[in-house]
Amino acid sequence: MKKQVMAVAALCALMSGAAFAQQTEGPWMVRARAVNLQSANGDTTGLGLSTNNKWLPEVDFTYFFNKNIAAELILTVPQSQTLYAKGTAIGSFKHLPPTLTLQYHFDAPGFKPYVGAGINYTRLSSIKLPAGVSADSSSFGPALQVGVDIPVGKNMYVNFDVKKVYIRTDVSAAGSKLGTFKVDPLLVGVGLGWRF
């Protein structure tokens, strides 16, 4: 009987310790990721437009309203892209695509998967195109997200994240709309997260 009481006491101590560790994790998480941008290159202009794939840095700030629901703001620095027409470089542009998602984090032992959906705003700048050709300088579109945080230490996580972001711009020549160029990238990222 004494051994059983001691075993129950030890189990209660372990459970209360785990609960305390969960309570000490604050509502904020910051992640830093390396992200591979893969452009969908959809084009209705007839020019055969496309842009390059590339690696880029990304940082996000997540706030947990409770253990399952969180909001994430995803940021990077302005990214330079080359614009091609049927494989020939014809210009370039920079884009800054902040994205805000609402996430659901699942309860799972050993890892923390999540899904998210939200909105992206992309600002295009330093647009360099052939004379007489222009493109819209901003884009709003939906964003979808799936990922997982894997604990590797106290309040530290390895993160794997995949996002589909809808970015597009209307292209005009001599004042007439030619069509729409859809970048619509798939963003595959890996990084580290800190919960506090």
From TrEMBL:
Presence of the UniProt keyword Transport in the record: no
Q: Print the keywords alphabetically.
A: Signal
**Lineage: superkingdom:** Bacteria
Localization per Swiss-Prot or TrEMBL: Cell outer membrane
- Signal peptide residue numbers: 1-21
- Write down what this protein is called: Outer membrane beta-barrel protein
Q: What is its main location?
A: membrane
Reply yes or no: does the keyword Signal apply. Answer: yes
